[in-house]
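Entry 14. Structure prediction run on the chain below.
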Amino acid sequence: MAIKRKITVCLLLIAASYGVYLWMTPYPPQQDLTQQEEAVVETFLTAMQTRCVGRYLIDIPASFTLRNKVLRAFINDHPIRTQRIYPPAFEQKIRRREAQLNGEKTYDPLDMPFLKRKIPLPAGMDGVIFERNEDTGVPDAARILEAHLYTNGVAVEVTVKTRNGLSLRYDEDRKDTPRIYNNNVPQDLMALTELLKRIKGRNETDIPDRPGFCGPNMFIADGDYYQQEEVTLSYTSPEYPNIVINLDTDN
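Output returned:
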């Protein structure tokens, strides 16, 4: 027993000594920069600019800009795409998209038309919501609310999956699985419209003055309820072609 106690004490002393060593030793080991490297780092960190990413304010060099022109975030698992374009381009985009949806043909003729309806946004908002089938090969009970909003020079597109199985052709299916063949469109449309009212286009370097979520080219002011938020942004600079700054936040 005495031998076992001595072994235990030795192990504890070794573990404690190693812990003190790690605490006293810089990790990773400190590296001395050359004079040239110090000059590069100092130049890199001289002109910093604050950016809003998700719920955070982060300083990065001013020369870095967003890598992609079409960017995406997720709110409650709904993809939100943004692109900075001029008003005529946005109007043309809506016309082309409506024509494309009207031209879609479903595999089953009973699922036609593919575009169910076009819903204008409330007064004071520029855009439209398309209620359409989820795909050409699935029953039209599966729907998509596809919103297009134009705000402060930014085209915003939000898609929300929903269901409307109230057609008489689904009466027998509804008896077996009423949860699938119900109508969620009214409440989902209301929630989507409420979300769109809180979205404002913004410049990349704009810092909001109220609580909310910063996505690419946009700001979403806080609403009455918690929302799941996710965004990934990449920044590049012509001055530092070998450096890419990736920022990822998920609440």
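The chain has one domain: 41-250.
Filed with the rest of this week's runs.
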